[in-house]
Amino acid sequence: MAEQRLSERGEFYPFALVVDRSGATEVVAAGTGSAQHAQELNARAVVAMRADIRAAALVVDVRLPETGGDGIEVHLEHAEGTALGVLEPYRVEHGEVIAGGLEAFSAQRRIWQ
Question: I want to staple 53 with a disulfide (CB 3.0 to 4.6 A). Which of 18, 48, 65, 92 is the partner?
């Protein structure tokens, strides 16, 4: 979804995806204003839903300080498991997203603490 928005618009606004108890997915885009504010609102919205969902992904566009490039960062969390992050460096050339290799890392739980 992030890559699609990048190829269409050259950017994307923070959003979240949740999986409910039946396995259905839903996009959460609660944020308005700055990207940081939107990211915080999306996280709060997902936390408020945690009794009804079993997994969530918080997705943000980040600047990679070590390269000066851009990346898609996804915070993944399951109600009964651990949290992890995934980072995908990217660049957009002529409307096409050129993605780098995925990096995964352990993360602190933010939704089910």
Answer: 18
Q: What is the pLDDT of residue 31?
A: 66
First-to-last alpha carbon distance for the chain, in angstroms, is 27
E strand residue ranges, the chain: 15-20, 25-28, 53-64, 69-78, 83-93, 96-99, 103-107
40-66: pLDDT as tens digits? 999 999 999 999 999 999 999 999 988
Q: What are phi and psi of 49, to 5 degrees?
A: -95, -5
* Kind and range of the H or E run holding 110: none
Cα(25)–Cα(18) distance, integer angstroms: 6
Residue where the block lists tokens 């940081």:
36
